[in-house]
Design brief:
Length: 360
């Protein structure tokens, strides 16, 4: 297994780092590199979201001459504007390092990098399988027969990617063939699919829905999965009048492209209350055609003071143990199963298995 580092690290990538060794076997992650200023240098990556330690240290300096790693995994979408990417790539290659570049689509790559990838064997581009290029193979709008599990959040930061990755692992461990779709380019290292380019295409809404349906038809026919797991492309619902939070438009479009069979809803733990979950469940049954099969309670909370002042959603991460206490009280109160999947992966697995068995 090749020793690798990931750069640049952002909080949203914590689930990828946490499950890195579970869903791929080519690379061993020795450390992760953050841009200076995050305050995480020499700390465990789990601290980024005040979550349990994961045993991977964060550094804030890219040492191209280090003998501790052979491969740099570059998540291009998080490079800051003006970053000297070309100089860094040339330096890495001159130091005989392997470079793995993760990106949403080929269109987002600069021409010099595309050309270099043809000339350098140690430069590898990891792009999602571009099923949308095969649109010609799909004819008309057709129903998808494979069960679809949608994982989304009342707010997007409520560990949606974490739940998506863990659900994929659990389903694979159950012996199922799983096709997983996320909006995170870094998940390409796990061979996950990526629909983000489809939403950004210059098409009207009806055409995008048909396009999504065509791509899902192709995935069903070519991959023959037992289940399709999809990370919601945006928040499931408007948060409030101050912060509409995207209104859940993209996720609604997805629900028109494919029937959603099961849903896991991720939300801040202070919202995971019986009455609120019932309201969400009723809304989602009308909006998406299925209710909440189970819920993940996250330690990511909305900063209500900043919401009022700035009229935008701002997230902070509460003390994990405080969330744990609150969730244990919720377990016995709600009809909809609730847990935190990070600390109770086994319980999540039981819930997930029961949900699929129910055929809800």
């Amino acid at each position: 297994m090749k020793k690798a580092v990931l750069f640049p690290f952002e909080k949203v990538l914590l689930p990828v780092v946490r499950h890195f060794q579970e869903l791929q076997t080519e690379y061993e992650l020795t450390e992760i590199i953050a841009l200076p200023g995050m305050g995480l240098s020499s700390k465990d990556a789990g601290i980024a979201c005040t979550q349990p330690l994961i045993g991977v240290q964060v550094v804030d300096k890219l040492d191209t001459e280090s003998s501790n790693w052979d491969t740099l995994i570059l998540v291009r979408e998080y490079l800051p504007v003006g970053f000297g990417e070309q100089d860094m790539v040339n330096t890495l290659l001159s130091c005989k390092k392997e470079l793995v570049v993760l990106e949403h689509s080929r269109d987002r790559l600069p021409q010099w990098l595309l050309q270099l990838s043809k000339e350098e064997a140690s430069l590898r581009l990891v792009l999602p399988k571009e099923f949308w290029e095969q649109e010609v193979q799909a004819t008309g709008y057709e129903g998808i027969h494979t069960p679809v599990l949608l994982i989304g959040g009342v707010v997007e930061e409520a560990d949606v990617l974490e739940v998506t990755i863990l659900a994929t692992k659990i389903l694979k461990d159950m012996g199922l063939e799983v096709a997983t779709v996320t909006k995170e380019s870094a998940a390409g290292i796990f061979n996950f699919l990526d629909f983000k380019p489809l939403y950004s295409e210059c098409r009207n809404e009806a055409e995008k829905i048909i396009r999504l349906n065509h791509v899902l038809q192709i995935i069903e026919k070519e991959m023959i999965p037992d289940i399709i797991v999809i990370e919601a492309p945006d928040a499931l619902i408007r948060y409030n009048d101050l912060a509409p939070n995207g209104f859940g438009i993209w996720t609604y479009m997805l629900s028109q492209a494919v029937q959603i069979d099961f849903m896991v809803c991720c939300l801040p733990y202070d919202l995971a209350q019986t009455d609120f979950l019932k309201l969400l469940d009723q809304d989602f049954r009308l909006r998406y055609g299925t209710g909440i099969g189970m819920a993940h309670a996250s330690n990511a909370l909305v900063d209500s003071v900043d919401l009022i002042n700035s009229k935008r959603l701002s997230i902070f991460y509460d003390i994990f143990d405080r969330m744990e206490v609150a969730v244990k009280e919720i377990w016995t109160e709600t009809e909809i199963p609730v847990c935190n999947v990070i600390s109770h992966a086994d319980r999540f697995g039981i819930y997930l298995h029961s949900l699929l068995e129910s055929g809800e």
